[in-house]
Write a structure and sequence with these properties.
Elements (H helix, E strand, L loop, with lengths): L6 E2 L3 H4 L5 H4 L8 E17 L6 H16 L10 H11 L4 H10 L4 H7 L12 E5 L5 E7 L8 E5 L6 E6 L3 E7 L4 E6 L11 H11 L3 H10 L6 E6 L5 E6 L6 E2 L4 E2 L17 H7 L1 H13 L5 H8 L15 E8 L4 E6 L2 E6 L6 E14 L30 H5 L1
Parallel strand pairs: 1-2, 2-5
Antiparallel strand pairs: 2-16, 3-4, 3-12, 4-13, 5-6, 6-7, 7-8, 8-9, 9-10, 10-11, 13-14, 14-15
């Protein structure tokens, strides 16, 4: 333990869902100072199959106080009604309505819970993250999740609710920030670095929707083109046929395809700005997006580039961000192999492999020193709208690092 760094041993189901939300979570506020805390961050894998009534209600019940605190941070009147959320689901994601109804019923059927689970017009949250698509010899999508660790779900959820098996890192119970389905389609998000908020869905549910129903990247692109989102995001897509792309989505601009296969936290690319333009300077400076974008692009442009080299780049600076040095440090690296159907959760000193083709179960706890924002600063205006029981499971023993060619040599 470092010096006088305070230490938290909070149950995983609490801190991973944001139990410090009242003190820390200030979406669209740039931290001006932070303090260091040491915590045991637990990642869990939960395989629910096609069931809604088994483990999910308990997981939701444990997380709901923190979810509710965040959801109502601007007051209940600021959140859409149940009727509005349900209507927008029927309009934009009709195939998902039955799943939504089952889930709402499973967690108790309350009005506020149903409004939360619709993911329609949620409170804004700014994050960071990095993306890369490798489709030269094999098909692997890689993502760094850069976010305050205290506010992450840290739950890998495996399900088969609509006839397609999906493994995804969950967000707000059934949303997904990265994931893959058994058709070989993988998807992951990074914040677009623009202070815009409009009428639309939280991106997590949009990713859930395309993973439930898309059989290839063109179908996934169709979802992103048609479903409105509440904020700006870059979305990496890859399938086992080798079709890969990074898509820009936003509430105030049409969907567009980026020219490269890497992305950080900017949008609006051009010939002069191939990785996007800086439209929120404070955010870009804090999260180091320019440096990360340049490092990833250089890695893919190397004549000797390999998937191992790409994965290795995600595990070292500047792409990997020390959680003790920034409130938006790297919580984990995810590598989705579309050919093998595997997800590798990676850290510079550890790895955990999960597979679509086997049980997705277990727990892995990592002790970390992390920076926690001490007070908010730099408020960003929003735009007008546009068109319970703690987890119980066996800990996962240390696993051998997965083989990614030069990735092994890096270690």
């Amino acid at each position: 333990m470092r010096g006088d760094v305070p230490r938290f041993r909070t149950p995983a189901c609490l801190y991973s869902c944001g139990s410090f939300a009242n003190r820390v979570r200030r979406p669209f506020m740039m931290p001006s100072s932070y303090e260091l805390v040491e915590l045991d961050l637990t990642f869990r894998a939960l395989d629910v199959g096609d069931d809604m009534s088994g483990a999910l209600p308990a997981v939701f019940g444990a997380a709901w106080p923190s979810y509710q605190s965040w959801f109502l941070r601007d007051g209940e009147q600021a959140r859409a009604s149940y009727e509005t959320g349900a209507q927008q689901l029927r309009r934009h994601m009709p195939e998902l309505v039955g799943t939504y109804d089952r889930l709402v019923s499973a967690v108790g059927g309350g009005d506020l819970e149903a409004r939360f689970l619709s993911h329609w017009a949620p409170p804004p949250v700014a994050t960071a993250c990095s993306l890369a698509v490798w489709n030269r010899a094999g098909n692997v999508l890689v993502r760094n999740y850069d976010h305050p660790p205290l506010l992450c779900d840290t739950t890998v959820l495996a399900s088969c609710w609509n006839g397609t098996r999906v493994v995804a890192m969950s967000d707000c119970l059934w949303g997904a920030v990265d994931g893959m389905n058994d058709h070989g389609v993988a998807a992951a998000i990074a914040f677009g670095g623009r202070a815009v908020v409009g009428e639309g869905f939280g991106i997590g549910l949009v990713i859930r929707y395309l993973l439930e129903f898309a059989r290839d990247v063109p179908e996934a692109i169709d979802v992103l083109r048609q479903v409105p989102v509440s904020m700006a995001y870059n979305v990496a897509l890859l399938d086992r046929a080798g079709t890969g792309v990074i898509v820009e989505v936003s509430p105030d601009r049409p969907m567009s395809l980026m020219p490269g296969l890497t992305a950080g936290n900017r949008q609006g690319f051009s010939a002069d700005s191939p990785y996007g333009r800086t439209e929120w300077p404070e955010h870009a400076a804090m999260c180091g997006t320019v440096e990360r974008e340049q490092a990833l692009a250089a890695t893919l442009d190397e004549p000797w580039a390999s998937v191992g080299g790409v994965v290795s780049a995600f595990l070292r600076a500047p792409v990997h961000r020390d959680p003790a040095a920034s409130p938006w440090g790297t919580v984990y690296t995810a590598a989705y192999d579309c050919d093998a159907g595997t997800l590798d959760l990676l850290w510079p000193d550890d790895a955990w492999r999960l597979s679509l083709h086997g049980p997705v179960e277990g727990m892995l706890t990592r002790r970390s020193v992390v920076a926690v924002p001490a007070r908010p600063a730099v408020p960003v205006p929003r735009l007008p709208a546009v068109a319970p029981e703690p987890w119980v499971g066996e800990p996962v023993p240390p696993s051998p690092l997965p083989s990614y060619g030069s990735y092994d040599a890096f270690h």
